[in-house]
Design a protein that fits this description.
The chain has about 140 residues and is mainly β. The protein contains no helices and ten strands. The strands form three sheets. Strands 4-1-8-6 form a four-stranded mixed beta sheet, with no helix packed on it. A four-stranded antiparallel beta sheet has the order 3-2-5-7, with no helix packed on it. The chain has a two-stranded antiparallel ribbon with strand order 9-10.
Protein backbone atom coordinates (compact mmCIF):
# COMPACT_ATOMS: atom_id res chain seq x y z
CA UNK A 1 0.00 0.00 0.00
CA UNK A 2 1.40 3.41 -1.07
CA UNK A 3 2.00 6.29 1.28
CA UNK A 4 -0.50 9.21 1.05
CA UNK A 5 1.33 12.32 -0.19
CA UNK A 6 -1.17 14.73 1.39
CA UNK A 7 -3.12 17.71 0.21
CA UNK A 8 -2.95 21.48 0.17
CA UNK A 9 -4.98 24.56 -0.69
CA UNK A 10 -4.91 26.99 -3.60
CA UNK A 11 -6.63 30.30 -2.83
CA UNK A 12 -6.74 33.69 -4.43
CA UNK A 13 -8.55 36.78 -5.60
CA UNK A 14 -9.64 38.40 -8.86
CA UNK A 15 -9.71 42.18 -9.17
CA UNK A 16 -10.43 44.98 -11.66
CA UNK A 17 -7.04 45.98 -13.06
CA UNK A 18 -8.04 49.37 -14.47
CA UNK A 19 -4.47 50.40 -15.34
CA UNK A 20 -3.49 46.90 -16.57
CA UNK A 21 -0.32 46.79 -14.46
CA UNK A 22 -0.99 43.33 -12.99
CA UNK A 23 -1.12 44.63 -9.40
CA UNK A 24 -4.12 45.56 -7.30
CA UNK A 25 -3.90 49.29 -6.68
CA UNK A 26 -6.14 51.49 -4.49
CA UNK A 27 -9.57 51.81 -6.07
CA UNK A 28 -9.33 48.53 -7.99
CA UNK A 29 -12.16 46.45 -6.56
CA UNK A 30 -12.57 42.71 -6.26
CA UNK A 31 -14.74 40.87 -8.79
CA UNK A 32 -17.62 38.47 -8.15
CA UNK A 33 -18.69 35.50 -10.34
CA UNK A 34 -15.45 35.19 -12.29
CA UNK A 35 -14.86 31.59 -13.43
CA UNK A 36 -11.70 29.94 -12.10
CA UNK A 37 -10.41 26.57 -13.27
CA UNK A 38 -8.09 24.17 -11.51
CA UNK A 39 -6.90 22.16 -14.54
CA UNK A 40 -8.02 18.51 -14.46
CA UNK A 41 -9.56 18.89 -11.00
CA UNK A 42 -12.50 21.29 -11.16
CA UNK A 43 -13.78 24.81 -11.40
CA UNK A 44 -15.37 27.48 -9.26
CA UNK A 45 -16.35 31.14 -9.36
CA UNK A 46 -15.22 34.00 -7.19
CA UNK A 47 -17.36 34.95 -4.20
CA UNK A 48 -18.96 38.33 -3.56
CA UNK A 49 -15.64 39.25 -1.91
CA UNK A 50 -13.73 38.38 -5.11
CA UNK A 51 -11.98 35.36 -3.66
CA UNK A 52 -11.82 31.64 -4.46
CA UNK A 53 -10.33 28.55 -2.85
CA UNK A 54 -9.68 24.96 -3.80
CA UNK A 55 -9.07 22.85 -0.69
CA UNK A 56 -7.78 19.30 -0.24
CA UNK A 57 -5.92 19.43 -3.55
CA UNK A 58 -3.35 16.66 -4.15
CA UNK A 59 0.24 17.78 -3.67
CA UNK A 60 2.48 18.30 -6.69
CA UNK A 61 2.36 20.60 -9.68
CA UNK A 62 -1.07 22.19 -10.19
CA UNK A 63 -2.31 24.68 -12.78
CA UNK A 64 -4.95 27.28 -11.86
CA UNK A 65 -6.32 30.25 -13.75
CA UNK A 66 -9.16 32.19 -15.28
CA UNK A 67 -11.52 29.95 -17.24
CA UNK A 68 -11.32 31.88 -20.51
CA UNK A 69 -14.14 29.85 -22.08
CA UNK A 70 -16.57 31.27 -19.50
CA UNK A 71 -15.06 34.72 -18.87
CA UNK A 72 -17.74 37.46 -19.05
CA UNK A 73 -17.38 39.66 -22.14
CA UNK A 74 -17.04 42.70 -19.85
CA UNK A 75 -13.35 41.91 -19.27
CA UNK A 76 -10.11 41.36 -21.11
CA UNK A 77 -8.12 38.47 -19.66
CA UNK A 78 -4.78 39.17 -17.99
CA UNK A 79 -1.57 38.62 -20.00
CA UNK A 80 -0.96 35.53 -17.87
CA UNK A 81 -4.33 33.84 -17.36
CA UNK A 82 -3.00 30.62 -15.78
CA UNK A 83 -0.16 29.82 -13.41
CA UNK A 84 1.52 26.62 -12.31
CA UNK A 85 2.06 26.12 -8.60
CA UNK A 86 4.05 23.50 -6.70
CA UNK A 87 1.74 22.45 -3.88
CA UNK A 88 3.25 20.73 -0.86
CA UNK A 89 1.56 18.83 1.95
CA UNK A 90 -0.38 21.29 4.12
CA UNK A 91 0.63 24.25 1.92
CA UNK A 92 -1.61 27.14 1.00
CA UNK A 93 -0.55 28.78 -2.26
CA UNK A 94 -2.07 32.21 -2.99
CA UNK A 95 -2.51 33.78 -6.40
CA UNK A 96 -4.34 36.81 -7.82
CA UNK A 97 -5.54 37.73 -11.28
CA UNK A 98 -6.32 41.22 -12.58
CA UNK A 99 -8.91 41.61 -15.31
CA UNK A 100 -9.10 44.75 -17.44
CA UNK A 101 -12.71 46.02 -17.49
CA UNK A 102 -14.03 46.91 -20.92
CA UNK A 103 -16.36 49.82 -21.49
CA UNK A 104 -18.91 50.63 -24.12
CA UNK A 105 -20.61 53.69 -25.46
CA UNK A 106 -24.01 53.28 -27.05
CA UNK A 107 -26.39 55.69 -28.66
CA UNK A 108 -27.72 57.00 -31.96
CA UNK A 109 -26.33 59.58 -34.35
CA UNK A 110 -29.03 61.71 -35.93
CA UNK A 111 -29.28 64.77 -38.11
CA UNK A 112 -30.98 67.30 -35.85
CA UNK A 113 -33.18 68.90 -38.49
CA UNK A 114 -34.62 71.63 -36.25
CA UNK A 115 -31.34 72.00 -34.29
CA UNK A 116 -32.99 71.83 -30.87
CA UNK A 117 -30.52 69.29 -29.45
CA UNK A 118 -33.28 66.71 -28.93
CA UNK A 119 -34.10 63.76 -31.15
CA UNK A 120 -37.53 64.54 -32.62
CA UNK A 121 -39.78 62.70 -35.04
CA UNK A 122 -38.41 64.75 -37.96
CA UNK A 123 -34.76 63.86 -37.24
CA UNK A 124 -33.18 61.03 -39.24
CA UNK A 125 -30.46 58.52 -38.41
CA UNK A 126 -27.02 59.24 -39.90
CA UNK A 127 -25.11 56.31 -41.38
CA UNK A 128 -21.33 56.26 -41.73
CA UNK A 129 -20.48 58.71 -38.93
CA UNK A 130 -17.22 58.25 -37.01
CA UNK A 131 -17.14 59.17 -33.33
CA UNK A 132 -13.99 60.86 -31.98
CA UNK A 133 -13.23 60.33 -28.28
CA UNK A 134 -11.31 62.85 -26.16
CA UNK A 135 -8.04 60.92 -26.52
CA UNK A 136 -8.36 60.94 -30.31
CA UNK A 137 -9.53 57.31 -30.53
CA UNK A 138 -11.96 56.68 -33.36
CA UNK A 139 -14.97 54.39 -33.42
CA UNK A 140 -16.12 52.13 -36.18
CA UNK A 141 -18.46 53.76 -38.65
CA UNK A 142 -22.01 53.91 -37.31
CA UNK A 143 -24.83 51.99 -38.90
Amino acid sequence: MGRHSGTGTIAGTVFSDWNANGRRDPGEGLLENIPIRLVNLGSSTTSAAGDFAFINIPTGMQQVGIDLSALPVDFDPPPIAQVQLQLGRGDTQRVSFGLVPLGAIAGRIVVDVNQNGIEDAGDRALDGAVIMLNGGARSEQTR
